[in-house]
Amino acid sequence: MSKRALKRGLTGFWWLTLFFLYLPLAVVVLFSFNSANSSASFSGVSLRWYHRLLGNEQILSAFANSMVLAVVSSVVALVIGCLIGYGMYRHRHRKLGWLIVLIYLPIVLPDIVFGISEMAFFVQIHQATGLLKPGLGTMIIAHVTFQIPFVALIVYSRFVGLDPTLFEAAKDLYATPFKRVLHFMLPTIKPALISAFFLSFTLSIDDFVISFFTAGPESATLPIYIWGAIKKGVSPEINAIASLMIGAVAVAAILSLVFSRRRQT
Amino acid sequence: MSDTIPADIADKTDVTPAAETPCQDDSTRKASAIELRGLHKRFGRDTVALDGVDLHIQAGEFFTLLGPSGCGKTTLLRILAGLEEPDQGTLMVGGKELTEVPPHRRSVNTVFQSYALFPHLSVRDNLAFGLKMRGLPAAKRDAKVDEIADFIKLGDLVDRRVDQLSGGQRQRIALARALVCEPDVLLLDEPLSALDAGLRSQLQVELQRLQKRLGMTFVFVTHDQDEAMVMSDRIAVLDGGNIQQVGAPSDVYERPANAFVARFMGHDNLFAIHRSEGDWVETEIGRMRLLPEEQRDTSDGWLLVRPETLELGPEVPEGYNRMEGIVRERLYRGSRIEYRLEVNGQVVMAVASNLGQRIHREGDEVTISVCPEDLVRVAA
């Protein structure tokens, strides 16, 4: 095979990949603007499905749940993950292999295993103590647990990339331990923190499986609502929600990327 | 290319008279003496970094800790900075005991080898960092930063970003950031080692002048004996966690306390002494007469012959020691000529200034003479 043919083949493969990745999304977005109540034919541009969304209390509450869950869990995960990331950095010379594996296990564990075990755990605690009633609270705990490793990893790698003498320079220049955190560490890792926040946010908004198993009757998120709704068939309304979610996640992912790029400098 | 701001080189030669410099009055008052007593420091079980160091550094002195890597010089500097705590011993600065005082409460600042400029801050904020941490109000910080920028002639560097600076510029900013705090003692951890040779020798002179202008106590760490000799008032040579010798550069160079110091200061011509007898010693390169004060009871030790004190030529002046040798190698260096000679089966280095005298060739048999005054006996 000639070099040129190989290049053409690879280019074709690239377009094929893009086609299967983004065309379904494009179709969803397109039909969300369809004026007809059909998923088969496009008959004209309209915003009626978006208007319909605003009138649907279930959707609005699912949206609110998703946002509260994503923001609260991301903030909590940011604080805890940041502390873990710093701890990992400070004790990087010790042998921490098993601890690191423990922290990263949730990343590789299948969501469904994770979700079911969390559910069983919460239910047992609830039966025994009356605490941790399935609902937003349990979902936040579950989301925080799978967000933490990502935050910790981002913060850790930022610290590792720093000149270790910077910590000594801060001490040498009269910074007390508290001022070192405030004026040196936090500003230095700020881009990493912002990036980690948006990544956590995206992970939370995207999650269906773990949310599904840890949710209560009142705490359906958008993915859970969509899953329930499409059992009755794909309505153009679903297309509208999906389009909004695609937009939100894309923005969060881009922001995460932008800030993770910025930390290189 | 952009290593130096225009003012960088041009202003290097004209030293502002001390009286006109604003930092002068503040800093001479602040110069502090350092007293180290019985410092021991161990890392892990087996690594002894400092093995009982006693040292007195005078106020306003340019003092250099010189030694090979692993000799303990950096550990000693870090103990002065408070970044390391000694296992035993005490540290006094300006009459106050600082042994267990944390670094942020010591009036001691460091210029780090990697410069350690904060990447998230502008140059100006880097310079103001120490003052800010000490709680100085913003207006005063700005004034002080401007003052030091003027003093060290930073020019427009102050308004740049840290990642826009070259190595030499970073070095100057790191220096200014430490000096602006007006510490009792300034510590410098091989601050010139990352720079190229030209910039390095330029900054050596500049640093030394700066220290004289400020009258501040400088403690400088280096492994480069030439750098140490150019810059220092006094040098402490360290090896194996012990101080081998403390003295002015000329003492340490001309009268090394032992063979280690002699070798570290760049002396190659060390010859074993077999036997002493009156003013005479029997050595690997023959019988030599020394000055009476060089004689010791012990017969062991080394004879140090500095290459620049050897004279090559047929005439041997009255009272000089005489050797016969063969030129094995000749290096023409322009201003001087280096010879590798063979005397009594030993290699002897000689350096002659190129004054237009006869240049010997490889294979030439030469008569070598050396004045007894120039011969130094070095302990083993």
TrEMBL record, chain A:
CDD domains: TM_PBP2. The keyword Transmembrane helix applies. The chain crosses the membrane at residues 12-33, 59-84, 96-116, 136-160, 181-203, 240-259. Its main location: membrane. PROSITE patterns: ABC_TM1 (PS50928). GO terms for cellular component: plasma membrane. Keywords: Cell membrane, Membrane, Transmembrane, Transmembrane helix, Transport. Residues 63-259 form the ABC transmembrane type-1 domain. It is found in: Cell membrane. GO terms for biological process: transmembrane transport. It holds the Pfam family BPD_transp_1. SUPFAM superfamilies: MetI-like (SSF161098). It is a multi-pass membrane protein. Belongs to the binding-protein-dependent transport system permease family. CysTW subfamily. This is ABC transporter permease.
UniProtKB/TrEMBL annotation, chain B:
Pfam families: ABC_tran (PF00005), TOBE_2 (PF08402). Coiled coil: none annotated. Residues 1-27 are annotated as: Disordered. Gene3D superfamilies: 2.40.50.100, P-loop containing nucleotide triphosphate hydrolases. InterPro entries: AAA+_ATPase (IPR003593), ABC_SmlMolc_Importer (IPR050093), ABC_transporter-like_ATP-bd (IPR003439), ABC_transporter-like_CS (IPR017871), Mo/tungstate-bd_C_term_dom (IPR008995), P-loop_NTPase (IPR027417), PotA-like (IPR005893), Transp-assoc_OB_typ2 (IPR013611). NCBIfam families: potA. Part of the ABC transporter complex PotABCD involved in spermidine/putrescine import. Responsible for energy coupling to the transport system. The complex is composed of two ATP-binding proteins (PotA), two transmembrane proteins (PotB and PotC) and a solute-binding protein (PotD). This is Spermidine/putrescine import ATP-binding protein PotA. It comes from Halomonas eurihalina.
